Fold these 4 entries.
Entry 1:
Amino acid sequence: MRSKLDFVDTELLKIKQDNLYRKLKFGKIQNEFITINGKKLLNLCSNDYLGLPITKLQTNQLQSSSRLVSGNDESYKKLEKDLAKHKSQQNSLIYPTGYMANMGAISAIVKKGDLILSDELNHASIIESCKLTDAKVSIYKHNDMQDLQKKSKQKVKNKFIITEGIFSMDGDLSSLKQITEIADKANAITIVDDAHGDFVIGKDGKGTPNHFNVGKKIDLYISSLSKGLGSFGGYVAAQNNVVDLCINKSKSFIYTSALPSFLVKHSLKRFESNREKQRKKLEKNTKSLSKGLREIGFEINSESQIIPIIIGDEKSAMDFGKFLLENGIFAQPIRYPTVPKNQARLRISVTAWLKDKDIERALEIFEKAYVKFC
């Protein structure tokens, strides 16, 4: 007897046939390692870039309500003030996740009749956020400033240029100096999602715009507390009226529970910790692993701690990842729709957790993989 939901099985079968099927792996993470099915693996998939020392959480308050009701714990005030100063902005606002920060802020500030100029490799959360606005969305070729300049000449009331600081799948940096110059000429508002650059690059980890000396030319920052800071949550930083608008119009802020205060306090402790020492270690590890992979023969074009090894077809990427797993390395294959079809890759995330011997061991395994698959 046919079920009303038989079409789900058909869709899943198609996903499997296309080598795009995903299955959850359950693991336990400790520093630079992850244990899966009892096997201890070197974790090259972590977004805990700085590997700040683990602090004990005091879970005195687990939950309250939305921040506009009774969930606005006093701990938010200090962290938001510090984050605003960190980004040289007047104010900031914390969201439960970085994804929700993108959804909430972009949909609050952009409206129907406006124009969004969005890099073609922007994160899915930016793509979905743009759809919520009812604005015209014009996609410019990745980091192609001629294309952006051409598209920025369209006549509309408000223009917004949205880009990541460090692109999450390619690890390259946005051309922010040129973008801000184009924005000035086009009278466009600049929005930067700096989730992968924040706390990692720039003076004192102030992020990608600071790295390019254009920090003051960014109108709206969107970022994460869950990556470089190794805590949990997301935030936006901008001038007072933009943050005020988010408080009043941002649905992913208004209609969701507040982060528990112990997570906010945890972020504050990590923000106030000695991040510079860990940033230098991350920079050293990134250079060491990138150099080693290039010497093996891999084409590495990344400028950051995100190092993609482009494989091509999905099945080969899965086989490559399986080989690494069998040899003690956890580096997940990334496939469509996260990246374009036939651009499947191993996405390596370097962290400050890694020791010299970890990098040496990883390079030994990657050299064997290169001989087998490349």
Note: The chain has 13 helices and 14 strands.
Entry 2:
Amino acid sequence: MNLKHLFYFWKTARSGGVVKAGEALHITPQTISGQIRLLEESLDTQLFSREGRALELTPAGRLAMEYADEMFSLGAELEQALRHYPKGRPAEFRVGVSDAVPKSLAYRLLHPAVDPADPVRIICREWRLDRLLAELAIHRLDLVIADSPIPPSVDVRAYNHRLGDSGLSFFAARSLLSGRDQPFPACIAELPALLPGEDSAIRRKLIDWLDRKRLRPRIVGEFDDTALMTAFGRAGVGVFAVPSAIEQETLASGDLVLLGRAEEVRVEYFAISVERRLTHPCVLAISEAARAGFESLENNGGPTPAAEE
């Protein structure tokens, strides 16, 4: 079987016709049709049925597509693997970070990829998850860090690799708590609140938790960026929640009070890759370090929440 013929068949099926495939490959539709015909003759099997101008995959064609998808996906993985060993300059590691992931947590997750003995240039992009996955699909990124797996609505051939999870910790500025003595979590209903943006997995789980607790805080702000939400929280604008994995550094400045924790609310973090089996050395370092030590990122034996003192 000629792999070039198979590639033209695969490209035609994915593009929706020989005309679009020809435009993508910069060759004539007649050339593509001829190559597909040779493939069908070599296999003695019809791969497309023709309904007018439309092409439809036959049952044999659908089976061939499953194998072709695997073969060309592996080819893309091979290209990626070889690209990580360039000669004469540091290898590039291109990673996308969903804007819903706190910057400090993203740094902790990515730091194991920095190896002085094997220099690598890290190129980070921050964007909405759907945009990052589109970049991953065309191999402009090696990895995407996100707070949710690939959404069902996104048609991308990629794989979720779970890194770990974290509970939520609630904070407020000392000035905001003046004269208030309600215990946690009832105190949240008396305070203005800041929420993560709509694309954040934390937001959905936080709202569900508030509903279960029958808490109805007054929402005064919504933020895609956790650092910006924290800055507003430090200014006394409202109570807010962040992953317990970054609890200690959130408290480090001394101007915030830990109100309490919702350990039952678990926010998961994923490394999303085109690789089914992780082979990229940077991705392996991130995955292994996260799985071994993600729980240690959370507060263990830290300060007692104010409402429990």
Note: The radius of gyration is 25 Å.
Entry 3:
Amino acid sequence: MLAPTLLVAFSGAKFGKDSSIKLIHKQEQHKVEVRFDGQLFTSYLYSPEFKKPVLYPIKTQHSNQVTRGYPLEPRPGERADHPHHVGLWLNYGDVNGLDFWNNSDAVPPGEEDEYGTVVHRSIDNIESGSGKGLLEVTHDWVGPGGKPLLEEQATFIFRSSGNKRIIDRITTLQALDEKVSLRDNKEGMLGLRVARELEHPFDEPVLLIDESGRPADREVVDNEGVSGTYLSSSGIEGTEVWGTRAHWMNLSGQIEGEQVSVAILDHPENVGFPTYWHARGYGLFAANPLGQKALSGGQKELNFELAAGRSTTFRHRVIIYSGQAASDSELDQDWEQFRDTF
């Protein structure tokens, strides 16, 4: 269940014109749909075949997808790479020496023992409502032998506010019967793989999905419809944001003629605040507070540990702005509201 402070935040925040937000648990399909005024916004997917639970797809007010379809639902013209980049997720590249981040069905045979899996254990609470909805779940971070290393309590709060759709993800990780080390690693932590339209244009050839839904036979240079641009709260733009620190990061572009901004907000109570950004022009948009050496070029280092029984909580907000490129001042205001909510 939500901690008391989160219950206050959930019941008390004000977000303008309310939508009817309904969460529908479809057990046989291993998912919970999140609908805003009857329209699908996202789904929590927890198939036992997945290497971690994800939110997928994530849609704008006008039903355009801000998430890449591959590998779940490949769409022609998008990149065929990094099959572990699925929707919106949270995991890490070095947990007691195990790689949770890169685990996927593409792991070569015989190398499975190098990877960990985030396993959905239970859905603990679902609430629908006017202007907000709530999903609480429990995950286990397990090694290749099935032994849990971490218990994760994850709370998702879904809200609407005018032309904004908002996801809060509050994640508490607790070490179980032994110390857990999350050693400094580039691959982490809150990740979002965005649609092709939100990538930055590239001059290099890339491998794209063809009309049959499969990777094409050869790489091509094709920037049709590609319009993404990063901007950080530190004033850094474009692909230069990678490896920098900021309390929010915004990615703007156009999808099917709709101006869209996708922002991820970091919270000052998170370990490693302000987070480093593992944000790539090819469509990976990730906040990594723990990979400081890897992302700072060796200037900083953080080898984070949890003693047995100890926990830490990460708070993140994702905002989808429809019909606009969000301004710095609006993002600053939204970040301050997020800071003061939790």
Note: The mean pLDDT is 94.
Entry 4:
Amino acid sequence: MANLELLARQVVEGFITGLHQSPFHGFSVEFAEHRLYNNGESVKNIDWKLLARTDKLFVKQFEEETNLRCYLLLDTSSSMNFPDKGINKLQFSIYAIASLMHLFKKQRDAFGLCLFSDKADIITQVKSTTSHLFYLYAELEKAYNNPKINTATNITQVLHQVAGQIHQRSMIILFSDMFENSLNPEKMQSLFAAIQHLKYNKHEVVIFNVSDKHKEIDFNFDNRPHQFIDIESGEQVRVHPNKIRESYISSLSQYRHQLELKCAQYHIDIVDAYIEDGYNNVLKSYLIKRNKMI
């Protein structure tokens, strides 16, 4: 894979350039190095040059100062290895998370990482240091280079575990294809009980629902019989796409609509993250959520 740090920096710099040229320029990441001055605090760290440019009092921020605590949860189960050609859901999510962490670092936000499938493989501490950033990059590279085979996911168990370990108000950002619960109403109820556990502790939750729109959402396959393989179980079935497309799309749409309704009920942001669309929507969704929290 390409150097994760370099790719993340390029994604973020391109995104910031785009913001400055768009109606969203108000999300300037100039506050990455500054915060507004609060009446009564010391004036020694005021940036007087920025005052001259903006007519506002800003204070320079330093390495140990943080604005927000963010936990990034990445589903590494085998279904995330789809598709088998081009960038898959796992790789897309890793690039997106690396880009978010680069943005967190610029903004002096503290961040941690949880990698999970049927159980949590790693839950790190939350820090904002450069050494922590590179440690997390290394963990992401391990996940990239060692995709899991025939491994299911258990989002519910992991969310309860994370909720039990996080004691300060944080932003929880989940990257998953959310397929664990798609055909099982009881599992869906269990999932939202786990999310309620997070919300009960006053955390803000953002779900990036990662998918291949072309194949998984639109079910766009050639008009010939295909051998479909369940990546998590290895189970195989041979079907003609045209014969099941309508029922597949209907069932999936119904599930996704139910998921969106539940998220709205619990005030959870759920964002479609199509791998074909790149990373800008991920970064923009985070900034919108962040601006509501600070």
Note: Residues 23-32 have pLDDT under 50 and may be disordered.
